[in-house]
Design goal:
alpha/beta; 7-stranded mixed sheet; 3-stranded parallel sheet
């Protein structure tokens, strides 16, 4: 495991999400005794860098720590294919894993697979996206608040000109319930304060699709008539910025994002992207691992779950919702660098050295 991930794991382990291990190994669940458990981890794609770089290694490390090296994680990535993910769930059920951590490609379509897991006596932790079906636990961020944070940041960037501003909204995929929450929060901040010239729900969260959407908006509205861009995540922000540059825009409008991807942090430093949303992945992933291990052993979740949420199919799901932070030029040092997500050297490559020096980063 690399140094940044180890730092993130250590921070998460020391966070308020940690719970006592004193009861570990004291109960049985589905024939599982002590720490000898198998956790099935199903992640949705490789488009977002976070899943492979942060979430997977943190979960694997946390399960290892919680089971004193006796538990293991088996992993599958669906590459944005909902049918493939359903097959992966079925394979893990056949392999008799003890618990599933599931980040759904399509939260609604996966419900039947979750029901099959329940029938097999395998609990399911919904990770990052609230899958439908009989979910046993859920961990994510306050996703509506993410949209509020993005909307507020965009309004602040527009300043006194907001009332006369026209923006383009590049939302996430309709198959992701989080996208609806981001959009809801953003609209709550933006509606009535700016004019939304064009709005898109971007298939598969794809940067290429976002670039195509942004090109369509530019063709219809005119590049000079776009004063700001609400992008729901960093990958799509990169696509939107590429479209603006291709249209000859040199003074880029403020563009939002989410996930604090390295390329986005560098765009923020250079001034191409206004902000991102930093979501501390380590606490979220650590909470998923904690709940999964507890469920596999038949233990209570009351020491880790902070609240309860409802899905369209299941009520009162024990949940952990991790706070988010607006990431701008002003707080890169005290967020992603301090938390060990990236080093200053990783961010401040030769291309960005001058911008880093101007911001006193590194």
């Amino acid at each position: 495991m690399n140094r940044s991930v180890r730092s993130a794991v250590a921070a998460a382990s020391a966070s308020v999400l940690a719970f006592s291990l004193s009861g570990c190994g004291s109960e049985e669940h589905s024939g599982v005794i002590s720490n000898d458990i198998v956790v099935g981890l199903l992640l949705p794609d490789r488009e977002a860098a976070r899943y492979e770089k942060f979430d997977r290694p943190v979960i694997e490390d946390k399960v290892d720590r919680l089971t004193i090296g006796e538990g293991k994680v088996v992993y599958a990535n669906a590459n944005q294919d909902a049918s493939l993910q359903a097959l992966q769930v079925e394979n893990m059920i056949e392999d008799e894993v003890d618990v599933l951590i599931l980040d759904a490609v399509d939260a609604k379509a996966i419900a039947g697979s979750v029901e099959k897991a329940e029938e097999a006596g395998i609990p399911v932790v919904a990770f990052d996206r609230l899958a439908e079906g009989p979910i046993d636990a859920y961990t994510s961020f306050d996703n509506e608040e993410v949209g509020h944070v993005q909307g507020k940041a965009l309004l602040k960037a527009l300043g006194d000109k907001a009332g006369n501003s026209r923006i383009v909204m590049v939302n996430g995929a309709l198959t992701d319930p989080n996208a609806a929450l981001f959009k809801k929060g953003a609209h709550a901040e933006l509606d009535g304060k700016v004019t939304v010239g064009k709005e898109y729900d971007t298939e598969e969260w794809s940067p290429e699709n976002a670039e195509a959407n942004m090109k369509a908006a530019i063709d219809e509205l005119g590049a000079d008539a776009i004063d700001g861009v609400y992008s729901a995540n960093d990958g799509m922000a990169g696509g939107a910025i590429a479209a603006l540059k291709a249209a000859g825009v040199t003074a880029l409008p403020p563009v939002t994002g989410q996930d604090a991807e390295l390329a986005a942090v560098q765009r923020i430093i250079s001034g191409e992207q206004h902000m991102s949303v930093y979501k501390p992945y380590a606490p979220e992933a650590a909470a998923a691992a904690e709940m999964a291990v507890a469920l596999a052993k038949g233990e209570s979740l009351h020491t880790v779950a902070q609240t309860h949420v409802d899905s369209p199919t299941t009520k009162d799901i024990p949940s952990v919702l991790v706070p988010v932070i607006a990431l701008t030029q002003a707080n890169i040092e005290e967020t992603v660098i301090r938390d060990g997500i990236y080093t200053a050297e990783e961010i401040c490559t030769p291309k960005f050295a001058a911008a880093c020096a101007e911001l006193a980063i590194g």
